[in-house]
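Notebook, student rotation project (T.W.).
Task set for the rotation: take a protein with a known small-molecule partner, predict the structure of the complex, and write up what can be learned from the model alone. Partner molecule chosen: flavin-adenine dinucleotide. Sequence and SMILES entered below by T.W., checked by me.
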Amino acid sequence: MGDKKDVVILGAGIGGLAAGYFLSRTGKYKVTILEKEPVIGGLCGSFKHDGFTLDYGAHKIYSVIPGILDEIVNLMGDRLLKLPKRNRLFLNRHLVDYPLRLGNLSQTLGPAMFFRLGMGYAFELFKGALNRNDAGSYEEYIIRRFGRPAYKLVFEPLADKVWGNPSSLHLEMARTRVPSSGGLEVILKLLGIKKETAETSAESFYYPRNGFGDFPNALKEQIERMDGKIITNAKVTEIRKEDEKISSVICSIHGEHRSFPCDLLISSIPIEELGRLVFRDEDSEFNHAVGSLQFRHLILIYIFVNRPLILSDQWIFFPERQFIFSRIFEQKQMNPDLCPPDKTAICCDFTCSEDSWQWQTSNEELTKKCVEGLVEGGFIKAEEVIGHLVKRRKNFYPRYDLQYEDKMQVVINKLKQVENLLLTGRIGMYNYNNADHCMDMGRFISEKLVVGISCHQIIEEMEKHVRDYRIVD
Ligand SMILES: Cc1cc2nc3c(=O)[nH]c(=O)nc-3n(C[C@H](O)[C@H](O)[C@H](O)COP(=O)(O)OP(=O)(O)OC[C@H]3O[C@@H](n4cnc5c(N)ncnc54)[C@H](O)[C@@H]3O)c2cc1C
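Predicted structure of the complex:
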C-alpha cells in the first residue's frame, strides 16, 4: 500500500475516470481525481429535470477497438441494455438511411437528382482510377468517395453545421467522422450490394439502463473500491513544478486551498488551460500554437412535449440549412423508463463558434427556432410543447483546421518536456473522439506505464495512436 505512486488526474469526465480506473487496477497507483464541477461524468453524465433523466445529446456505447467493448460490458454487466440502432437522415422532407444508400435516395429525391448523384459517383470512380494521389482536405476526401453532388447535398451542409466552412477542414476530420473505404466498395454499399461492416456502421449498441451517466458512475464506484478518491468542486488554481517535474497540484475546494502532491499528473482538462497552468505563459511559440487550436461550442436544446413518443429512430441527422440543429435525439428511445409515460423530450444539438449568431442569440430565440424546425419537419405541433431547457458547453468539439498537425507538434513537443505529465480525453488530448476512445486512452496509458515506459515516450506514441480513432455511427 505504502509504495504506491501518487497519481493526480484532472477532470472526472470519462477520459479522467478511465485513466483512474485502469491505473487503479494495476495496484501500483493511488489515484486522486480532481473535478471542478459538483458532479462527475462531464459530457457523458446524465442529469434529472422535471421527472426526466436526460443525457447530453445522443450517446451510445459502441466500439471497434479490440477489447474495449468487453471492458465496458465487464464493468457494467446487467446495468446495460442492448439496443438495435435506428438512425436516419432527414432530407427533402423524407427520412433516408444513413449511411447513405442509392436505392433509398432515389425514392426520396426523384429521378433527376438520383441521376446526378449516380453520375457524380461514376465520375469520381473513373477519376480515382487515373489519380492515385491522397486527398488533401475533408472536401476532397468526401468528393472522391461519394461524388460532388452527394457532397453538396449532404456532407457539405452537415459539416458546415458541425465544424464550419468544410473547405478549411483537415482531411483527418473526414477520416475520423466518415469511416469509409474507397472506390468500388463505397459504390457497392451505396447500391446496397455490399453491407456496411461493424467498422463503418453499428447494427446495435449498449446503453446504460439508468442513463448514460451510469457509465461514469460505474467507473467511479470501481475506482473508490480500489481506494481511489474523486473530489468534486475542486478547481485547479496552480500546478507546481520542480525542475522539469510536477510536484503538486493546488486546488480551490469550497474556497479553501488544498495541495495534492503527485508522482504523476494526468490531465483531461482543456489542453490550453493545462498549458497555462504548467508553463504560466513562459513560451510564446507554445502559447501561440496551443491558443490557436480550434474548438467549436456545443448547444443542446431540450424540448419537452406533451405526447408519449415522437420518433421511431433514436436520433436523426439534419443536413439541410433551414434547420438550425444538426441532429435530434429522443431520450425515451434509449429507455422509456427514463421519462414520464405520457411525455417525451427531444434534444436538438448543434455546434457553433464564439462569434457565431447562434452563440450570441438568446436561449429563448434558439428554442423558438428549434420548435419551428420540428414543426416544419412534421415531428411535433407547436401547441404540444410544454417546456424547454438549454445547455451550452464552450470549446467541446476539436476542429482540425488545415494547420492543426503543425500546431499539435509544437504543443506536444513542449508538454513532453515535463517528465511526469500525460494527457487524455477529448479536450485534454485535443482528439475528436468518443467515450470508447477515452477508455482506450486510459488502458493505453496504464499498459505503457506498468512496463516502465517514460511519459515522454507515452505522449509521443499516444499522439500517433489516437489519430487512428474512427467514430462509427
Ligand atoms: C452530442 C454528443 C454526442 C456524443 N455521442 C457519443 C456517443 O454516442 N458515444 C460515445 O461514446 N461518445 C459520444 N460523444 C463523445 C463523448 O461525449 C466524449 O468523447 C467524452 O465525453 C469525452 O470525455 P472527456 O473526459 O474527454 O471530456 P469531458 O466530458 O469534457 O470531461 C472533462 C471533465 O474535466 C472537467 N474540468 C474541466 N476543467 C477543469 C479544471 N480546471 N479542473 C478540474 N476539472 C476540470 C470538466 O468539468 C469535465 O467533467 C458525444 C458527444 C456529444 C457532444
